[in-house]
């Protein structure tokens, strides 16, 4: 599918198949078209061309509620004038479900997210994490076959983020429905996803399991965005080597030379910041033992070395 | 030093307090006091008497003779007020909704909003009087209606009628609803509308279950403006009603012109009490302080 806004293409011929029951993360820097893609899936944005199929049904022409998708909005978009219970029951009310029945169902959903005790509170009286769970209950109350989450963790503080992340994964596993989660944080994608879809400028840069995408970046962009890689220009072309597989050697023995900019203790080891001959920024993660065996200091020149199996050849930049 | 810090806030509040005391509290207290005075054809007699209130409600206890003048006037005023309220609310809500949700560009929105306020650059009276040549027996509207053959004879109900009074009020006061309602609507997070749509709400359902509840503070503030302005009015009702329609404001004005100040003051106190009751009931519905 393709989405154009005026003259600019926000999403360019995106072709993606998400198997049912998958936790899929759309990952990319801001402006890469991931949110637009999600909104097209949800039906809040109409694609300029192309089709969207859900459970093998064409849904592109349908309004959001008839697609079998539910969306959890960034900062949740809870109705401020309704109690948690009424927020969760809202979509049932719109369908004309009788009050007793919809409240009973909404209560069950709130119990699922462990918020039954706060059913009568207004959203403003809840913490960020609680609001997030109300939003989740509201999205799940219609039994959607796919849940679309737009940056669900970005409104939370870092401490909560980790806990809520684990909860999201647990819900997805227990409910067995497809989650499509938009994020710009590679940590989130790696931790949650079964399928990571890395996007750039409206196109898919790379997709695969978190392990594939992290360990075997296909392009320099993928390697840099996922982090943990040194992108090094060799005579044979660009390669990526994970920072924890990069070793420091005497200059003569290394494949490339670099200058040590600084050494930081990370607790589990040392992060050595390096500058390449053309100003490249590299990093080597060394264990305490490695640094003790061969001490380095800031300002020294060193050679970078690695095992041949750790080299990932990168496609030339598009 | 401590002394200065104690006095500074009082000094800062003093100018406004003085203005309010002089132009708000004092006239109000004076009105209440005068409403208890006695009067003759040519003089005011300082006194504490319930005569003015008693005369106002004279014969009101006896419903078998039909309603007393005061009650009939109140009902007439309240009916007009209700009509104007309904029209300004519907119209104000619609205009605000269009401005807030249908106009996409901020520049266009501001331009249209300024267009709404443009009539307020002319005086109330001018705007009212300019209806006369339009609505009169030989006015523009009647000429057009007769000329196009829609009606055979000029229509009398266009001017000096409830219709013309309500029309003039709606024209004068709709903006007082538009402004607070527009303000409320602009604060509604647009994602809430998408969330409602996502939950399967139709356009009307979204309007009724999301937009209207979240616009309530604006609607209440606008209603208070309109009710206060219409309940106390005598000029518009006089001019547009051809001096034929009874209103409390009109009664007060007539009593003042006969120098029956205590009677007029008593009427004013009762009217004030009634309007305050209406406002109290409305603010019970919604916490407007949240909005201000």
UniProtKB/TrEMBL annotation, chain A:
A molecular-function term among this protein's GO annotations: ATP binding
Protein name: ABC transporter ATP-binding protein
Pfam families, A to Z: ABC_tran (PF00005), TOBE_2 (PF08402)
UniProt keyword annotations, A-Z: ATP-binding, Nucleotide-binding, Transport
Organism field: Paeniroseomonas aquatica
Domain ABC transporter: 1-226
Keyword set includes Phosphoprotein: no
Entries under InterPro entries matching the protein: AAA+_ATPase (IPR003593), ABC_SmlMolc_Importer (IPR050093), ABC_transporter-like_ATP-bd (IPR003439), ABC_transporter-like_CS (IPR017871), P-loop_NTPase (IPR027417), Transp-assoc_OB_typ2 (IPR013611)
Gene3D superfamilies linked: P-loop containing nucleotide triphosphate hydrolases (3.40.50.300)
